[in-house]
Amino acid sequence: MSALAADDVGLLRALERFGIRLLWHPSLSEESGAEALAILTAAAEGRVTVDALCVEGSILTGPNGTGRFQLLSGTGTPVSRWVERIARHAQNMVAVGSCAAFGGIPMAGVNPTDAVGLQHDNGLLPAEFRSRSGLPVINIAGCAPHPGWLVETLADLALGGFDAARLDSLGRPRAFADHLAHHGCSRNEFYEFKASAATASDRGCLMENLGCKATQAPGDCNIRRWNGYGSCTDGGFTCINCTSPGFQNPGAPFQETAKVAGIPVGLPLDMPKAWFVALAALSKSATPQRVRTNAHSDHVVVPPARKKSP
Q1: 154 with 77, same domain?
Q2: Is the pLDDT of residue 307 over 70?
């Protein structure tokens, strides 16, 4: 659903701009039944070129490694086996979303279906797996990932020149993973002064009390926005760091900040705890009354002061 809103023309036409043809997708393609099976069989046998095998959702390997919790309809064969067979011939392997990349939501808790991602941390494919291009699985993480991340990655692959240097240590394209969701957040003034929201409707920073992890979350969500405008934090919902492994088990309710001795457990990346405590204390002592008041309201109560004309 996220990808369908890509660019200003939708996913399929956005891909066509780069000469990319969708071979088959269970929801977007006309082919079904025997026709779809023929396409998949040809791909699994290497009789049709697959430049990029994009997998959505985690792979269910249970029970007991059989994969029979997730059979491809009409074949009696586990989805895991189909992915493994096509992966042998695919030029590139792309995990679309954090479930496909890292296991995601189906791995939460006790993981009753033995869900895994494609390659990360004992995933379906071995750690040494490399596609025909020489790359590991490309992890377009996110729950859901920004449509631009998908289109731009596939376009980059189609245009050539995409190499391992464009991936971070977890296989995420650096085009978005070299940023943080915190960058460009509309609540950054409140963050700077540690003027924190107390309830979900407040305009203040969501980090101190409401569980926001934007200062730790890879992604340019607040730079390029979604659907032309908007993001999780713009909508009043905290960033849950959905582009990272293990986000589904936060250790505390998603909209509560876990603390030890009053200090948030999840601090901004690269910031020593002592520095954060000192900075927070200094920032709060210097918070303008305008910022303090607006932080605990759902709208601007006190506008910025305007200089009087001379």
Answers
A1: yes
A2: no
